[in-house]
Amino acid sequence: MTPKKYYSLILILGFLTALGPFSIDMYLPGFPAIAADLKTSVADVSLSLSSFFIGISAGQLLYGPLLDRFGRKKPLYIGLVIYLFASLACAFATTIEALILLRFIQAVGSCAAAVGSVAMVRDLFPVKDSAKVFSSLMLVVGVSPMVAPTVGGYVTAGFGWEAVFLVLAGMAALIIMAVYIGLPESSRPDPSISLKPKPILTNFYAVIREPSFYTYALAGAVSFAGLLAYVAGSPLLFMEIFGVNEKQYGWIFAFLSIGLIGASQVNTFLLKRYRSQTIIKTALICQTLIAFALLGGMSLNILGLAGTVALLFLFLSSLGFTFPNASALAMAAFAKNAGSASALMGAAQMGIGALATVALSLFNSRTALPMAGIMATSALLAFIILLLGRKGIPASADPDAEAVPVFH
């Protein structure tokens, strides 16, 4: 594979992976405006974020078998078209209930891109390079939480929150063109893979019972829930508690994302000297300590805006090491059913994340304590899962072993 082809694939896969984060982050500055227009509260608007996470979680289980049965590109096209039309419909929603439902449908479309991109990493690149590729993807994906809320803040301030969804629809159209022109079909259709419920469940069970998968996928998913709790809680934290406006919120969100992006790139260099297993353990220890420091500081009301931003920056930096290594270690054992494995991993991430955001809405106290509490709990649980799960992984299992990619 030539360097030009390599970076072209990374860029397109990054755009696919970034579609979901853009859909999450870009409308966050519009929460107060949406609440005012639809005559509801910011807490109720956050339920449209929860429904998006639920849609991604459920939809990934659907697309996993489809990606294995029909190849990668056809299901991708279907999902992206669903996303495009749902985004257009969101722009014309007149009730919070309609927006919540349409966000669910939008998510079902977007998760085809999420599952497909992860599966194609496994198709196109050697296993030993997976963590590096995921780190490269995070560089592209990481731009989304920097750009999306900032652009969303300006779009909302200048044209209204509805325009954000029109921009997302336009993005989907451009991504469809990029997939058609620049992305190869990395997996031949496999008629032997049944779409009947029993074989699908049997295939999922074969993935779940793999110790390296359930250990790293679950630890990564629970850790990831802390990130989604921060995302869902940040409009309340910054715009209502600290009183920043939409544009300022976008810039703060962008700054904090630098921690996630920077750490994911440092991870690439650390992988030259340390194994993924060592990095993820150290990262989860740091993430837990930082999250409890944030919870303690908020409880005592001693942080202020600067202190809160500093600790959130460190928390997101820890996630920049956790996520790419958890993804690579969870996917390493799979070749034939990488689509199903990717779907299960994504479903776990978004399903547990959805529970975190629903809990955030239920425990809404007009303070940031529920957000910080969920972040601390998720980090601690992820670390415990990692320690307990690794005891069941055979010593002979080597996720860094060489594998031949489908595409050269």
TrEMBL record:
Tell me which InterPro entries the record gives. Answer: Efflux_drug-R_Bcr/CmlA, MFS, MFS_dom, MFS_trans_sf
Transmembrane stretches in the record are 45-64, 76-94, 100-121, 133-157, 163-183, 213-231, 251-271, 283-303, 309-334, 341-363, 369-388
GO MF:
sodium:proton antiporter activity; xenobiotic transmembrane transporter activity
Major facilitator superfamily (MFS) profile domain location: 9-390
The main location class comes to: membrane
Q: Which Pfam families match?
A: MFS_1
Per UniProt, what is the membrane topology? Multi-pass membrane protein
Q: Which domain of life is it from?
A: Bacteria
Compartments where found: Cell membrane
UniProt keyword terms in alphabetical order? Cell membrane, Membrane, Transmembrane, Transmembrane helix, Transport
Q: Say which species the protein is native to.
A: Adhaeribacter rhizoryzae
GO cellular component, alphabetical, reads: plasma membrane
| Family, per entry | Belongs to the major facilitator superfamily. Bcr/CmlA family.
Q: Which GO terms describe its biological process?
A: xenobiotic detoxification by transmembrane export across the plasma membrane
Please give the name of this protein.
Answer: Multidrug effflux MFS transporter
Upper lineage ranks? Bacteria, Pseudomonadati, Bacteroidota, Cytophagia, Cytophagales
